């Protein structure tokens, strides 16, 4: 019996050691994941995620298949949580750790999720960010612009805005430093009279000039090929005058020229308002995107898609705090040098035809 007890005691000692070691090993912890659709009322939800519950569900339906995990093993993060993590990040510009804690996931998971979801949403841009295709669409957009200040044939207001980023590092970080001395992407956008984005170009660093970005864009090539017929864009003096891109006169003299300038400036106003609304919906665009440079484009395009969806659902513009408002004003003050008219007759002919044949008769 004594020998058997000795053997039993040894086995128990071994089991005890195994039990101690297993308990000392770091156990995988699962944080509690809040159901934010139930926790917040409609207004509280919109303030935290910048979209209504209805709009979030609409987006979720579009991207669930692409972002969902193939199985639900190991408490896989649901598509709903993934989208809310991303929206919270875009709405606050916070560190990923803060966003992760807000929804109850690990920081590394939040990092992967934000980029994955932004890519999925950005992939919807052919549906939600597009120039008019048919004559009826172009005519409808032109009519909406005409109601602002009676400017004819306009189907888009164009401008560039700076999207703040963290220091990109690498071999050439200074090309991202803009005239305001912070790092950014200079993003070109075209919007309609209802502040919906129709075209976004997000691949040029902050030191790039507005006119350079336009000259190297597909939208310029499409207008030159006549794809938009006799319709035109309107822009500020940061662009050179073209037959399809009408800018204001530097020194208007006659009554018709002054009327043209006033109409052009008022009709161009939607793009400036669009930038303000866009950045108030997603303050990360002004506070700074803390991701690698190669991931910035997906984030910007994703916010553009979400902005248009918000417009589609008639979402109210969220209230921003003083810090966010100051950041938005700061990044919006980065202006390019004025580009003087080249004086080419072919470029000026359309503008002076508008002044002489149209605005001269409105007096």
UniProtKB/TrEMBL annotation:
GO terms for molecular function: hydrolase activity; metal ion binding; nuclease activity. GO terms for cellular component: cytoplasm; nucleus. It holds the Pfam family DDE_Tnp_4. Its cofactor is a divalent metal cation. Coiled coil: none annotated. It is found in: Cytoplasm; Nucleus. The keyword Cytoplasm applies. Keywords: Cytoplasm, Hydrolase, Metal-binding, Nuclease, Nucleus. It comes from the Eukaryota. Residues 158-308 form the DDE Tnp4 domain. Transposase-derived protein that may have nuclease activity. Does not have transposase activity. Belongs to the HARBI1 family. This is Putative nuclease HARBI1. It comes from Callosobruchus maculatus (Southern cowpea weevil). The lineage of its organism: Eukaryota, Metazoa, Ecdysozoa, Arthropoda, Hexapoda.
